[in-house]
Fold this protein.
Amino acid sequence: MIVNIGGETKTYDLLQCHFHWGSEHSLSGQQQPLEIHCVHQQVSHSNVPRYGVLGIFFELGAANSFLSKFESNLPTHEIALRGRRLQGPGASNLFGNPIEGASTARRLAASTNSSSFVGPLDFKEVLSGLDLEHYWSYDGSFTTPPCTEAVDWYVLMAKSSASQAQLDKFRTAMGWTQAGGNFRNPQPLSQRTIYGCLKLPQSTKSQHPWYPYQVDQWAIHVSGSNMICKTGTFQSPIDFAQCIQPDMRAAPEITWAKQKVTLLNNGHAIQITAGNVGASRGKMTVRKKTYTLLQCHWHWSSEHTVGKRQYPLEVHCVHQQDGTEEAPLYGVFGVFYEVSAVPNQFLTSIEDNLPQYSYRRLGALGEAQQQADGFDLFGHPMDSAPGRRVAASSIVSTFSDPLNFQDLYNGVDLNHYWNYEGSFTTPPCTEAVDFYIMMEPAPISQAQLAKFKAAIGWKSAAGNFRPPQPLAGRSVAGCRTVGSVSLPDTHTVKSAQCPDQTAPLVLQVIMTILSVIILAAICLGPVRQSLANSSSARQMKFTGNVPAKVTQLKEDLKFLELDLETLKGTSEANGREMTKVQDLVKEIKMNT
Ligand SMILES: [Zn+2]
Ligand SMILES: [Zn+2]
């Protein structure tokens, strides 16, 4: 089920449909005879599952062809037929949690009566003839224990019909006759809004582009926005200090295969989705964790930086950690690219098939907005189910040659890498990602880079990257000796989220003060000299001021010297420059 609400597209996977006799929702206080709930789980990468339930009322009328498929095979249940309300803790479990469709076989076997009816059943037939464009929607809960408030409700205004004979069959099978049926009464609306009749949800999310990165946009306004983008303390990317002496480490064991891929542009990145399934899926084992390859995608310019500098391109190969189906954890293998005279062999095989972002589809909007809308249309970069979902919403290349994924890092030294715990670098910024970023960049030719930039788009934002986020006390492994602070790259300076740049800024301020003082010293030096040799009336005017100024200057220089001493300690690379400046200061002191 795909619902577009206020410009935000939500996609759900169908789990199961069930019936309530009489209806749970009511229309102007009127209960309807029967209501079907088709329960879906939202396709998302949040660790907190969310559900979408499509509800349809049945009124007495013509026989329903969907119901006719299984109306004579409805299983009954002893306890429901007895019609007593269940007591004790087993109550909700007997009929199962409505969301447990996926695990029915395992969990409900003991407490469920299954019909011999096994289908096939076309679920979509339940919608036949119904207007799908008019429905109520609201945020709600399960209508059965545990009443979890994690359900987007969509209740069609159009009613389906069922014959009296059909309704009777459902009523009989469901039991609960003494209770009047298996429904929960309408609950207070409280502060919630029901959309669909007079009020439509506001269309806002799609108005905000992802790039250039703005933290408040990602926290509140963009599609997929999440406060964790702003408040999180495990956010990615980060800046790596330059590594003077890297740790020699065991290389990640990579068993990516030569396989078919889907090469696509999802609106914010060029991506190759691994077409492998089941046992043949490529794996990465690193630091005792095993991950399964989902996809690789590219950022122009790089997201991680080294010594505050961006590389022109960075690839992220996204894996899901094995055994984390319930609360998925991810592992990203990343490689930087560095412009070289030699083209990159792996990129050569796809560079002329890169799907270009299509601007025509979305009308006369600005590029950034189109690409922001593109997220809704194009799904999430972590999406691993391209067949179903991305096909309709991404620009997919016709490229169909098998790709040897291992060629992606061909020649790159895998023994030297940084690793740290971080987050998605795109909304919703979920903090569930182990990053393994290789220190050695791969080569890319200028021409190849130009092709990637053109296909990725986001030209007005200078690329599809999020700048480095605060490290916030996290440890980064992989480097024994880190290098000095180097001056920041212009790209990263633009962001309000840059890591600490106090040292370079202090240096800049001191340099400015210093040049003023030097100028003053140069001007005042000769004045003092001439004062010593003269006693003319004109020069006498200075006698009161000049020695005071010189003393002040000497004081300033003393402090400056101390400051420089401190800076020298923290900044070895600038050490030589500093020594020169210090010598200069000493020289000025001697002259004054
Ligand atoms: Zn229900
Ligand atoms: Zn990425």
Summary: The first strand starts at residue 2 and ends at 5. The first helix runs from residue 65 to 68.
